Amino acid sequence: MNPAPKKPLRPRPILAVWDGNVFIPLPRFKNLCDRQFEINAEVPLIRSEERNMSAHRWYFASINEAWKNLAEEYANGYPSPEHLRAAALVEAGYCTETNYVMDSPKDARQLGIALRRLSPLAIIRISGNVVKHFEAESQSVSAMKRERFDRSIRDVIEIVSSMARTTPAELKKNADRSA
Q: Which end of the chain is more exposed for a tag (fewer CB within 10 A), N or C?
């Protein structure tokens, strides 16, 4: 009987020191390097910006706290904290916008339905035969540089705190308690 195929290893970052000639992985990453890299294989390197993980956790706790306390007029419009975060990113301008001009309003509605299935977190607006599709930018470390991420946090927290009828400072205090 053949053993089950190995699950592909998800690449994980390692820390290494540049000595002026070569990168030397820190000792605690040796086993990971042995599993992740082939000896003498070329490996692309890219410098990654460190993100304050405490602020990162606070941000997501704040989004969750705001979602739980949305004002009545917003409460049914966001099925999850992720929907709220995506909508706030779009409102703050951290998004891509694609416009589709269809032959008829019926075609526009059908496209809107198809886009919703493909992008459940997107904002889709239909006006006559025009469909506007707004997709929130990824806030992952690899997709958004630290400075832009920090700005996006401030902008999103301001939006969601107003939707929860509170202030960013009050939201932070409540998120700190629940985080």
A: N
C-alpha neighbours within 13 Å on the C-beta side of residue 33 = 16
Q: Is the dihedral of CA 22, 26, 29, 30 positive or negative?
A: positive
Low-confidence ranges of the chain (pLDDT < 50): none
The angle at the Cα of 8, spanning 139 to 13, to the nearest 5 degrees, equals 45
What is the distance between the alpha carbons of residues 24 and 138, in angstroms, rounded to a whole number?
Answer: 31
CB within 8 Å of 43: residues ≥ 6 apart: 37
Rg, Å, the chain Cα set: 22
- Spatial distance between the Cα atoms of 96 and 81, rounded to a whole number of angstroms: 20
Count the neighbouring beta carbons within 10 Å of the beta carbon of residue 170: 14
Q: Token pair 């496209």 is at which residue?
A: 111
How far, in Å, are 11, 19, 94, 129, 149 from residue 155 at the CA level? 32, 40, 10, 32, 10
Instruction: Give me the pLDDT at residue 102, please.
Output: 98
The tokens describing 22, both together, are: 């070569």
- Return the number of other C-beta atoms located less than 10 Å from residue 26's C-beta: 11
pLDDT at position 48: 66
**Distance of alpha carbon 115 from alpha carbon 131, whole angstroms:** 10
